[in-house]
């Protein structure tokens, strides 16, 4: 797929990178990424993905904008309180970059509809706020063979990982969290800048994965905002995992 003159000018600072170039930009242009959650994580990831030139974004969220969201979700405004997050986020993405096609899916993703919502995408970026949704997304990605970038932030702690086959997200958290009940920022609080940082880092992992810039799977990146320190840890595969037990190991 050829890039137009306007696109070549827009993406010039990316394309000059030796490991990215025109090939990487074309991979982004043809990519289809599903973003689960247009909240704090999504507010960091969606602008970064759209600005980078990801050709098609699907934004999945069943929530509406609340005043309490505005502290960490700057893709929304005061006059949009009560509006559908998915549609508003899709409009924001196309306003940033007219070369991006953004589709809103105003629905809640769960184990029953995850495969239908996520199929035909090249990567999924999950910034949802409960384990039931995260596990449904992770299980569907394994079944569909789609790479998953999973990101979370609460209080002053953030984490991001790329999962590609085995180990999977369920290897990381286990089966104990197949429930909507978990700690979230509504209960524990969160720094707004932290969610945006984690969302942007998740977008970076997604862009690297699409453009073929490295093998980042099987590692969890942790940010301690109190100590201003990043660290990465390897994620072992669970030999008894009921989701990815027969899937190939990450590479």
What is the approximate shape? globular
* SS-derived structural category: alpha/beta
Instruction: Assess the beta-strand content as a share of residues.
Output: 15-25%
For the largest beta-sheet, the strand count, sense and barrel status come to:
8 strands, mixed
Strand order of the largest sheet: 3-2-1-4-5-6-7-8
**Topology as a string of helices (H) and strands (E):** HHHEHEHEHEHEEHHHEE
- Superfamily at the CATH H level? NAD(P)-binding Rossmann-like Domain
What is the residue-averaged pLDDT? 93
CATH topology: Rossmann fold
The CATH class turns out to be: Alpha Beta
Low-confidence blocks of residues: none
Helix content: 25-40%
First-to-last CA distance: 27 Å
Number of alpha- plus pi-helical segments: 10
| Total of domains | 1
* CATH architecture group name: 3-Layer(aba) Sandwich
Outline the structure in words.
The chain is 37% helix and 18% strand. The model has no long low-confidence stretch (mean pLDDT 93). By secondary structure, it is α/β, with parallel strands linked by helices. An eight-stranded mixed beta sheet has the order 3-2-1-4-5-6-7-8, sandwiched between helices. It has one domain: NAD(P)-binding Rossmann-like Domain (Rossmann fold).
Write the layout of secondary structure elements.
Elements: H1 5-10, H2 12-15, H3 21-29, E1 32-36, H4 40-52, E2 56-60, H5 85-96, E3 101-105, H6 114-118, E4 123-126, H7 131-144, E5 148-154, E6 157-163, H8 169-173, H9 185-188, H10 192-211, E7 219-224, E8 229-234
Parallel strand pairs: 1-2, 1-4, 2-3, 4-5
Antiparallel strand pairs: 5-6, 6-7, 7-8
Helix pairs in contact: 4-5, 4-10
């Amino acid at each position: 797929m050829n890039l137009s003159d306007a696109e070549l000018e827009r993406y010039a600072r990316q394309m000059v990178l030796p490991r990215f170039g025109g090939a990487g930009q074309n991979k982004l242009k043809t990519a289809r990424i599903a973003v689960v959650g247009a909240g704090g994580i999504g507010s960091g990831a969606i602008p970064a993905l759209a600005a980078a030139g990801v050709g098609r974004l699907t934004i999945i969220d069943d929530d509406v904008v609340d005043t309490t969201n505005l502290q960490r979700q700057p893709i929304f405004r005061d006059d949009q309180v009560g509006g559908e997050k998915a549609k508003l986020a899709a409009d924001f993405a196309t306003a940033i970059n007219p070369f991006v096609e953004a589709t809103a899916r105003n629905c809640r993703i769960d184990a029953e509809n995850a495969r239908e919502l996520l199929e035909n995408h090249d990567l999924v970026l999950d910034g949802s706020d409960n384990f039931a949704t995260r596990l449904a997304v992770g299980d569907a990605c394994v079944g569909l063979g789609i790479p998953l970038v999973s990101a979370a932030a609460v209080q002053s702690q953030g984490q991001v990982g790329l999962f590609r086959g085995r180990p999977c997200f369920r290897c990381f958290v286990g089966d104990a969290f197949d429930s909507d009940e978990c700690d979230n920022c509504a209960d524990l609080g969160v720094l707004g800048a932290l969610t945006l940082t984690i969302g942007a880092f998740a977008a970076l992992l997604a862009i690297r994965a699409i453009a073929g810039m490295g093998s980042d799977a099987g590692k969890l990146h942790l940010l301690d905002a109190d100590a201003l320190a990043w660290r990465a840890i390897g994620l072992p595969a669970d030999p008894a995992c009921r989701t990815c037990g027969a899937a190939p190991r990450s590479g």
